[in-house]
Write a structure and sequence with these properties.
About 75% of the residues lie in helices and about 0% in strands. The protein has twelve helices and no strands. The N and C termini lie close together (about 10 Å).
Length: about 300
């Protein structure tokens, strides 16, 4: 157990270092800089800014200075938001994105797993057909289309929800539905296919022969084993939902990380782009690691050492 955890932690460190390096190289390979957008600055001011933020240092010096700051949990200053660091931007935007992501995840699990169970148990019947049609639409229609339709009809036309912002808790409802649309459909289809495969296993037949009711067979033996593929995708799914959809946040004008990330790309804010990318990658690898731990809780036959 301890050996496995240490091995995974080492892999996480290597992965995050590689992400930092690749992101850094891509940012500096693209022509231009943080102050090249908009009106051109006088050369003396440009030189002073480069000197202040060490942009005139060799690339390897800039990179290792950045790594040194990361080890101290300092993601550096923002080049475009005067007086704010990247840590400040994350502290401002992440609570909104995380709240939206957690709500979308709960909404996804509460709706998708029961729908997947119904579709599997009613295979070939009208319930299965209806759920298949709905999930196909959910997978194929982009989240920004769902967000636009929800905002126009339910917020603008019917006035049931706020058009933008989260000053009112109801402001989270439409973004939550739009953000979870694809994931809800995907998890539903995954649960359906996985449960259908499990229900054909020999031990399911044995459980029925022993006299267990169909509910006991599904809950005790079928559902638990069929959730392993679902748990596999929960880590990346939760990471994506926690960070929020940049487009959905823009449509509903939510003050989340999406707004800062989009603006940092537009403004060529090196430190902000690297900081948001590294933060997202950290959340992702940590959640994937936790998913591996959950395997053992769902199915004791799975050993971490394996």
């Amino acid at each position: 157990m301890a050996r496995y955890i240490l091995k995974r932690l080492a892999m996480m460190v290597v992965t995050l270092f590689a992400i930092m390096l690749v992101t850094f190289l891509i940012m500096h390979a693209i022509p231009g800089g943080p102050y090249s957008a908009g009106k051109r600055l006088p050369e003396d001011i440009q030189a002073a800014l480069d000197e202040k933020y060490h942009l005139n240092d060799p690339l390897y010096v800039q990179f290792f200075d950045y790594v040194k700051g990361v080890l101290q949990l300092d993601l550096g200053p923002s080049f475009r938001y005067e007086g704010l660091s990247v840590n400040d931007l994350i502290a401002q935007g992440f609570p909104v994105s995380a709240t939206l992501g957690v709500l979308a995840m709960l909404f996804t699990l509460v709706i998708s797993i029961p729908m997947g169970i119904i579709a599997a148990l009613k295979h070939g019947k009208w319930q299965d057909t209806l759920i298949s049609v709905v999930t196909t639409i959910g997978v194929t229609v982009p989240s920004f289309v769902i967000a636009t339709l929800l905002e126009y009809f339910l917020a603008y036309r019917l006035r049931w929800f706020p058009i933008y912002g989260v000053e009112n808790p109801k402001g989270y409802i439409l973004p939550m539905i739009a953000l979870s649309g694809y994931y809800l459909a995907f998890v539903t289809r995954l649960t359906r296919s996985s449960l259908m495969d499990v229900m054909r296993m020999d031990y399911i037949r044995t459980a029925r022969v022993k006299g267990l009711t169909e509910t006991q067979v599904v809950v005790r033996h079928g559902l638990r084993n069929s959730l392993i593929p679902v748990v596999t995708v929960l880590g990346p799914t939760l990471a994506g939902l926690l960070m929020g959809s940049f487009v959905v946040e823009q449509i509903f004008a939510l003050p989340g990380m999406g707004r800062f990330f989009v603006q940092s790309i537009t403004n060529r804010d090196y430190t902000a782009i690297m900081g948001f990318t590294l933060f997202y990658a950290t959340v992702l690898v940590v959640l994937v690691f936790l998913v591996d731990i959950l395997y053992c809780l769902i199915d004791p036959r799975i050993k971490l050492a394996e």
